[in-house]
Design a protein that fits this description.
With 679 residues, the chain is of the alpha+beta class. The protein contains 24 helices and 26 strands. It folds into six domains: 59 residues, Helix Hairpins (Orthogonal Bundle); 231 residues, D-amino Acid Aminotransferase, Chain A, domain 1 (2-Layer Sandwich); 93 residues, Nucleic acid-binding proteins (OB fold (Dihydrolipoamide Acetyltransferase, E2P), Beta Barrel), CATH 2.40.50.140; 75 residues, DNA polymerase, domain 1 (Orthogonal Bundle), CATH 1.10.150.20; 76 residues, 5' to 3' exonuclease, C-terminal subdomain (DNA polymerase, domain 1), CATH 1.10.150.20; 70 residues, BRCT domain (Rossmann fold), CATH 3.40.50. Strands 2-13-10-3-9 form a five-stranded mixed sheet. A five-stranded antiparallel sheet has the order 16-15-14-17-18, with no helix packed on it. A four-stranded antiparallel sheet has the order 5-4-7-8. The protein starts with 7 loop residues before the first helix and ends in a 5-residue tail after the last helix. The mean pLDDT is 92. Bound molecules: 8-hydroxy-2-methylquinoline-6-carboxamide. 8-hydroxy-2-methylquinoline-6-carboxamide binds next to strand 3 and strand 8. Its EC number is 6.5.1.2. It is an enzyme of class 6 (ligase). This is DNA ligase.
C-alpha cells in the first residue's frame, strides 16, 4: 500500500482503519462478542471510504469497504478446484453408521476404536475460499466438485468471511472450505420484509442462501443475512497443519473463521450415535437448519490411508435426520372454520413421510397464501414439517402440473352454515359471519370452553363435543350444564360410568376463577394473560361487562384492538344471555384482588431461552406472569432476568454482554417454589 502520491500519514491511517474494522468484524461475526458499537464502526468505515475515494490506490481486495458489494457482473467465471470438492456418503440409521465404522476399521486393519470428529451438517451451500499470503483471492461454489463458479464479489460481502487472515504464520496458499447458510432468524426477517413489499418469498433458508449467492449484483448479496461456517481445508502450500481434523478447525478459528460451536470429538462409533441422538433432539432449537450430522475420522494420517471412493471420502459419513421436506400430491382443498370464524384452507395430501411422521394434511393458511403459491388441485407440492409445527405447503413443482389441474375456489359462503364469508381489508383472514349460528364455530367455542386452561372439564374431549353438537344435544356453551345422564348414555361409545364421570366433571368445573372464566369465553385476542389482567383490573365480571373501550385500554397490555373485541363481545345480547345462563347453572368464582397490590415480579421483564426440561416453555411463562413479570422474546437493556436452558445461544450471549442476571431451570424452580408454587 505504498504509493508516492499518497501522503504517508494517509497510508498509515488507512492501514489502521483496516485493522480496527477487521478486528471489530471478527469480534462481531466470529466471536459473537462485539466490542465496537455499531455507530462507531459505521464512522470508521465511512472515514476509510472517504480516504479511498480521495486516493483510489488505497483500495485493496481485503479492504473492509469491499464488503458492501460492487458493480453487477454479466456472468460468473468458471473455476477449477485443484483439489476436488468431495460430497459425503449418507447413512440413514444406526446400523448404516456402524457399517461405516466397520469398513473404516477393516481398511485400517484395526480392532481398536476409531476417534471421530462430529459436527452438525448445515443446510447451506458448500464453498471454497482461496487465500494467498493471507488475503482472500477467490471464492467459488462447489459446482460439480471439479468446476464451480467464481462468486468472490458476493462472498466478500459476508461479514464472517475474513478478507485477510488474522495472525502470522499463515500458509502461502490456504483453501478453506465451508458452508454458507442463512440463520433461521435472518431468513424469517428477510421473508417478512419481502412479503410486506409484495415480493416473492423464499421457500427455505437454504434456497434463500443459494439465491443470495447467485446474485450478479453483489450489492444485493450484501443485504442478505448470510453466515460462513468453516468445516475443512483443500489446497495448502507453505505450511503444515495439525494432525487432527478438530485441531485444524481450531487453527482456522484462530485465523478468523467461524467454526461450529457444537463440534465434538467422539471416542468411538457409539459416542457418534449418542451425539446424533442428542443433536436430533436439539435440532429445532439450533439457530440454523441442519439435515444431519457429519462424522469424520479425526486423525488426518488415517484419513490419508483411507482415501476416497468415486466422489466421497472413505473417512467421512453424513448421518441424515428425517427430511423436513418432501414432495407429494395435492388431492383436494377443504375449508375449516375455526372458533372465531376464520376460514382456513387445508390441503388434503397423498400421505407422505416427512419430518419423521406420515402427513396427509397441511395448512394453506389463507387466500393470499394460495395465490402466492399459485397452487392448484392435482399439483405436486413440497411439504415441510419442522419440529412440532403444523405441516406447510412451501412450493409447487410446476413442471409436474397435470393437464387437468383445477383452480382452488375460495368459498364465498361458509361451508358449514352457509353464512357469507367476509374479509376485512388489510386482514389476510376471511371469516364466516355466522357467529354462533355456525355449527363449526359453536363446536370450537365449546371445545375451547372445556379445555384445560379454561373450565378444565375432564373427559369432554373434541370428539365428544362434535358428537353432542351433531346429535343436537348441545347448542351452546351453557347447554353443557343441562346435559342429562339419560341423553349421554344413549351416545355411541358412552357407558353409564363415563356419562356419570362427565356429569361429575361438569359439576366440579362450576367452581372456577374469574381469569379462567374470561379466558373460557373465547373472546378474540383474549388469551390467558389478558384474561388475568382484565380480572385483576376490574375485580369482577359486572364492571368488566360495563367497561367501554377507553377504560379497557387502561388495562395492562390491552390496546385499541383488544379493547374493541372485548367491548363488542359483551355488548352482544347472545353473550349476555349465555353468561347469565352459566351463572344460573351455578358457575361461580371469588372476586379477584384488584389492581394495586404489588406482585413479587411486577414491573420486571424476563426472557426464557434454550430448552427447559421440567417445565414447558408456556408453563414457565405462565408462572412468571402470575408473579407479575412480563415475559419477552428478546434480550435488551430492559431485561431484568434471563432463564437459560441447554442450547441457549445468542440471547444468553447478549444477556452476559449486558450483565443481566442469568439463572438455570433449577434456580427458576427454586424461586417459584419459594413463592408458593407446588411444582
Ligand atoms: O455442514 C456441512 N454441510 C458440511 C458439508 C460439513 C462437512 O464437514 C463437510 C461437508 C461436505 C464435505 N465435509 C465434507 C468433506
Amino acid at each position: 500500500m505504498t504509493n508516492k502520491k499518497i501522503p504517508s500519514e494517509k497510508c498509515e491511517r488507512a492501514q489502521e482503519l483496516h485493522e480496527i474494522l477487521q478486528r471489530a468484524n471478527y469480534q462481531y461475526y466470529v466471536l459473537d462478542n462485539p466490542e465496537l458499537p455499531d455507530a462507531e464502526y459505521d464512522r470508521r468505515l465511512r472515514e476509510l471510504q472517504e480516504l479511498e475515494q480521495e486516493f483510489p490506490e488505497l483500495v485493496t481486495a481485503d479492504s473492509p469497504t469491499q464488503r458492501v458489494g460492487a458493480e453487477p457482473l454479466s456472468s460468473f467465471a468458471e473455476v477449477r478446484h485443484e483439489v476436488p470438492m468431495l460430497s459425503l456418503d449418507n447413512a440413514f440409521d444406526d446400523e448404516e453408521l456402524l457399517e461405516f465404522d466397520r469398513r473404516v476399521r477393516d481398511r485400517l486393519n484395526s480392532k481398536e476404536a476409531v476417534e471421530y470428529a462430529c459436527e452438525p451438517k448445515l443446510d447451506g451451500i458448500a464453498i471454497s475460499l482461496l487465500y494467498r499470503d493471507g488475503v482472500l483471492e477467490r471464492a467459488a461454489t462447489r459446482g460439480d466438485g471439479t468446476t464451480g463458479e467464481d462468486i468472490t464479489q458476493n462472498v466478500r460481502t459476508i461479514g464472517s468471511v475474513p478478507l485477510r487472515l488474522l495472525d502470522n504464520g499463515v500458509p502461502e496458499v490456504l483453501e478453506v472450505r465451508g458452508e454458507i447458510y442463512m440463520p433461521k432468524e435472518g431468513f424469517a426477517e428477510l421473508n417478512k420484509k419481502a412479503a410486506e413489499a409484495g415480493e416473492k418469498t423464499f421457500v427455505n433458508p437454504r434456497n434463500a442462501a443459494a439465491g443470495s449467492l447467485r446474485q450478479l449484483d453483489s450489492r444485493i448479496t450484501a443485504k442478505r443475512p448470510l453466515q460462513l461456517c468453516a468445516y475443512g481445508v483443500g489446497l495448502v502450500e507453505g505450511a503444515t497443519l495439525p494432525g487432527k481434523h478438530t485441531e485444524i478447525l481450531q487453527q482456522l478459528n484462530q485465523w478468523g473463521f467461524r467454526i461450529n460451536s457444537e463440534m465434538a470429538v467422539a471416542e468411538n462409533i457409539q459416542a457418534c450415535i449418542d451425539y446424533h441422538q442428542k443433536l436430533g433432539e436439539k435440532r429445532e432449537q439450533l439457530p440454523y437448519d441442519i439435515d444431519g450430522i457429519v462424522f469424520k475420522v479425526n486423525d488426518i494420517g488415517l484419513q490419508r490411508r483411507l482415501g476416497f471412493v468415486a466422489r466421497a471420502p472413505r473417512w467421512a459419513m453424513a448421518y441424515k435426520f428425517p427430511a423436513q421436506e418432501e414432495m407429494t400430491e395435492l388431492l383436494d382443498v377443504e375449508f375449516q372454520v375455526g372458533r372465531t370464524g376464520a376460514v382456513t384452507p387445508v390441503a388434503r395430501l397423498k400421505p407422505v413421510f416427512v419430518g419423521g411422521v406420515t402427513v396427509s394434511n397441511a395448512t394453506l393458511h389463507n387466500r393470499d397464501e394460495i395465490e402466492r403459491l399459485g397452487v392448484k388441485i392435482g399439483d405436486t407440492v413440497v411439504i415441510r414439517r419442522a419440529g412440532d409445527v403444523i405441516p406447510q405447503v412451501v412450493s409447487v413443482v410446476e413442471s409436474k402440473r397435470p393437464k387437468n389441474a383445477r383452480a382452488i375456489e375460495f368459498p364465498t359462503h361458509c361451508p358449514v352454515c352457509a353464512s357469507p364469508v367476509e374479509s376485512t381489508p388489510g386482514e389476510a383472514v376471511a371469516r364466516c359471519s355466522g357467529g354462533l349460528i355456525c355449527k363449526a364455530q359453536r363446536k370450537q367455542a365449546i371445545k375451547h370452553f372445556a379445555s384445560r386452561k379454561a373450565m378444565d372439564i375432564d373427559g369432554l374431549g373434541d370428539k365428544l363435543v362434535e358428537q353432542l353438537v351433531d346429535e343436537g344435544l348441545l347448542h351452546s356453551v351453557s347447554g353443557l350444564y343441562h346435559l342429562k345422564l339419560e341423553e349421554l348414555v344413549e351416545l355411541e361409545r358412552m357407558g353409564q360410568k363415563s356419562a356419570q364421570n362427565l356429569l361429575d366433571a361438569l359439576e366440579h368445573s362450576k367452581e372456577t376463577t374469574l381469569p379462567k372464566f374470561l379466558y373460557a369465553l373465547g373472546i378474540r385476542e383474549v388469551g390467558e394473560a389478558t384474561a388475568r389482567n382484565l380480572a385483576r383490573y376490574y375485580g369482577d365480571l359486572e364492571p368488566l361487562m360495563q367497561a367501554d373501550e377507553e377504560s379497557l385500554q387502561e388495562v395492562e397490555d390491552v390496546g385499541p384492538v383488544v379493547a374493541h373485541f372485548v367491548a363488542e363481545f359483551f355488548q352482544q345480547p347472545h353473550a349476555q344471555e349465555e353468561i347469565e345462563a352459566l351463572r344460573q347453572s351455578g358457575v361461580h368464582w371469588e372476586p379477584e384482588e384488584q389492581g394495586g397490590e404489588e406482585q413479587p415480579l411486577s414491573g420486571q421483564t424476563w426472557v426464557l431461552t434454550g430448552k427447559l426440561e421440567t417445565l414447558s416453555r408456556s408453563e414457565a411463562k405462565d408462572y412468571l406472569q402470575r408473579l407479575g413479570a412480563k415475559v419477552a422474546g428478546s434480550v435488551s437493556a430492559n431485561t431484568d432476568s434471563v432463564v437459560a436452558g441447554p442450547g441457549a445461544g445468542s440471547k444468553l450471549n447478549k444477556a452476559r454482554e449486558l450483565d443481566i442476571p442469568v439463572m438455570d431451570e433449577d434456580e427458576l424452580l427454586t424461586m417459584l417454589r419459594e413463592r408458593g408454587f407446588e411444582i
